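Appendix C reproduces, verbatim, an entry submitted by the partner laboratory led by Prof. M.T., so that reviewers can inspect both the input and the predicted structure.
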Amino acid sequence: MADLTLLAMPKAEFNDWVGEACKLYREGDLLALSQLPLAHSSLVEPCFLKGESISGGVRGQALQAVLHWAVDKLRPAGLPSWTASRWRHYNILFYFYLNEMRIAELADNMAIAEQTFYQLRPRAIAALGGVLREELVAPQHTTELKNYALADRYASHPPAEQLILRLATIFQQPIAANLLYRLSAEAKIEPVQPHLQHLLNANLLVANEQGTEFLATPEIRPYLLTLLSPAERHTWHGAAGEYYETQRDYLEAARHFRLAMTYSTAANVLIQHYREIIDALNIEELRQLLVEFRAAELADSNLWAELKIVDGQVAIYLEDVDTALARYGEALSAPDRRIKALAYCHRAEAFKLKNIDEALAHYHYGIKLLEELNTADPLLVKTLIELAWIFIQDRQDFPKAAATLQRAEELINLHDRGAWSDLHKAWGELCYRQAKLSEAIDHLLQSWLAANEVQDVDRMIKTAHNLGQFYVEAKQYEHGLNYLAQSQQLATQAGNRTAEAACHKGMGGCYFWQAQYERAIEHYQTAYTIFQQTGNLVWQASTCYDLAEVHAKIGETHTAKVHFEEGVTLAKSLGYEELLQSFDELAHQHGELKPPTIELNERQNQALEFIKAKGKITNRDYRQLTGISQKQAVRDLHDLVDKGILSEIGSGRATGYVIK
């Protein structure tokens, strides 16, 4: 409404209001300014912060920012001049109204008589009115107005409060009160509390209800970042990095160390703590931060290689094998031979997903490097165990697998319970594949105990799951359900949905073998839902088999067929031949799962081929194609309609047949 009123005014009246606003600006009377029509127009709206209470002082300050902006719009290009005529309007507005210069001093600087000043002032006000009126008619500078308001607000505070604001703005997330107080004290700001309260009242800082965390108002942060000096950035980001490291917020610590340009410190934090960062589900943020590093920033090429290994580990977590191979490849040139060996071993593990021969070559060279360095290195034991898994799962060379595991067992430190768990897990799998089920269970029990001792949740989840499966196969169903339930509970707590679903699938199988089919369906269905939600098509297809089997077993043919058809479709799309074979065997056991084969004679097959090529077939087409009588053609075509293969279209001589 104020806009309409202002624009309906004659220009002379509008300019009078502009002149009054300039006068009150010079006098610093914010409350009087806030009552002017201009202070209630759309011109001031960009100057307010989101959610703030619009008091008279805030509105008056906003109008000041608008006037400041409009005066600067009249500033001529080029070097300033006191005497050039094109600078007169700007000099009068800026120095008299904004800087409160006395008329005599200003006239003297401009080399004009005071009387001339009085003659020029209305013209300057009119020029200013033109700028404001144009913005009212067609707003184009809301961002500029916002920035002017922010700058004016910042400038209105004393140096100590400006410094606190700059300090707070280096933090993207709320800063703990004790850290803000500490950094303020180091910057020789005492006392801090009154300044904080003033900034809170001015809406330039926000705090939580308890007053334990502060944050620079997000709208002013981009402007404040432009004011930080290199020394301030280095000092404050460094202090923030140290603080967040003590709080175990390692991603934030590394980010601040990097902003402080202490790149090696930032890299070391990521190398030492990347697993904790991943566990905190900050994987994408970690990847983005790693991308920002450059080799030239790190004087130590070994440190660069270690950072590339971390980068590769992150890529593996995100199932980006090609990127992982590339990052590990960059680390192969590390001068330190152990780091080089580590890069080879990680690259071997990645190659297992693409090329087993490449994986073996990398493992063998990595092991050779480690054996030359120190046979007591835990990395050597870990690598031997990983190599054994290739011989167990991929090459199924059980003698080589046993020899490799025996070598690892000779070198293992008995107090390294994590490695001990991994070793016996591999022994358990080897024994299982050799049909030594009792020995496999014994090894997995050793693995389970060691994993519990070190409280490694990932190891506990996997080992308990395998133990459960082995016990089920040994028909020790109670033990099987016990371990599968423990694995499922751990997986749920850890947020590992794939493992959680795998356990439900295993429990479903356990109940199936005990002929408790309803309970089996309950667990299979839970597993299916999770696999579907997480997009795990391989496991989803496998669980479709389970559901088809159990529903067929209890005579629920329709539901069984639905799961059967979905599973077959998924298995075909995945190229999962082993599962397709299982579905085929299931169909032989339960013939109702596949539709009956429709027997067609040679003439009818010819008709179908004709329709596929031409789109439809008529009685005449069919007779010409096969050389049979009209009556026989009618019988053949109607038989295909009755079998649900063709549909009849048209009538009379235009009757045709198309594939249904």
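DSSP finds 34 helices and six strands in the chain. Additional entries are available on request from the coordinating office.
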